[in-house]
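Board work, copied verbatim: Membrane associated serine protease, rhomboid family
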Amino acid sequence: MLIVPAENVINWKRPPWATLGLMLACFLVFVFYQSDDDRIAEAVLDNYLASDLVDLESPVYENYLQRQIGLENASGMTDRLERFQRAVKKQDTVSQAGMMAFDMSFYRYMQENRDILWASAERARWQELREPIHTQTLELSSFRSGLVPAELTPSTLVSYQFLHGGWGHLIGNMVFLFMLGFTVEKALGIGRYLIAYLLCGIVSGLVFTAFSLGSPIPLVGASGSIAGLMGMYVAIYGRQTIRFFGFFWVYFNYFRAPALAMLPVWLGKEIYDYYFAGATGIAYMAHAGGLVAGAGVILLLGRSWFQVRESFYEPEQEAQDQRFTASYAQAMATLGRMEFDLAKAQFGALWERYPERLVLLEHLYQLAKLRPDLPEYRARTCELMNEALRQKLTERLVEVWQEYLAKGEAHHPLAAGDHNRVLFACLRSDNLKLAEKAFERLRSSGDSLLVEEACQLLADEFDKRQMSPKARHYRSLLGGPAQAI
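↓ predict structure ↓
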């Protein structure tokens, strides 16, 4: 059974850099840091076969497996015992060596019971042959940087998350890391996402250690951290109904369910498999620990350290565009029916929600222009002028200003600052004629400070163009002596 969230699609305009970085880190660690593992494992096997350890350990190993099955009720060992017995029957020493040489629990069992397993001479011979092979085995990356419960260290609680047992293990984990990671990264932001990811991996490792106390078998892989992402994913959505993809033996399909409802399903599956799936080599309790840690990070700390960003719950740009198009079409239809008050309310609501879409303000301006005697026309004019200035639409700014002078100035005059903005915009666009017109309006407003500054600017501009009469004219308005250039 496999159930994974499928609510979101990735937006490549905003790539999940942290998730891609984690994937790259795991890949580089596997390719470079773990690249020598195959050579070490082959050397261990060759040295094991070159000795007579197969003859010494084979009867002990069969007895060890039977003991595990009987005394400790380790039912998962049944398949291993059957495979080993087939290898013994076929005299397949390579298969026998492969099972015994790397079984660290078996090695510890022999160390603890060597005095009763062999006579003195055999025991000394076994110790002489086995010790260097065991030391060589410990050079594998899984023992150097993996999480070994019997030798737990703070560093391995982090390093084990980036190791993998093979290409299949790596690729499988990276697929799930990508599927879950880009959504959680979008929700938390890069920094908090990375902290939460590593924290879930640490808790996952501690839970695994708690259920494997004293075990010499190392834990490697990102699956505990990825389980944490699954827990965070459903906790972020909480009771919201979202889409999942389910694979149930031969049947697969999408279905919708409350997000948090999946947490007990996933958790129950991991606990069930831990007790009943047998020796599969999968760290089920590490997964369970990651799930609980991920959900806890959001449910307990979601209002403080790991608060979900508000932008996460906003619809994607495509969905926003679709919503805007539908609402805009509705407002235009209202306008077409000449229901101006209703259209004004609809465009106003859209403008508040989509302040970056200037076309909405244009509609509000045109509707306000129907009644130039009302204050709303002046307010929309000033708003549109400011927006045009912000977007450097000088021609539109001047056009709106001139239109208001003709229609609304007699009812509600513009402020001196409004004329001053037009003057500055005209100077920047090298339109001195309109700049002078704006100055005359500014001058009539009675704001002496702005008039003085505008006079100085105009005089300087005309000086640059060697238009001395004009320059003298504006300097004379300053009250000082005119200067010939």
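The chain has three domains: 2-29+163-313, 37-144, 317-478.
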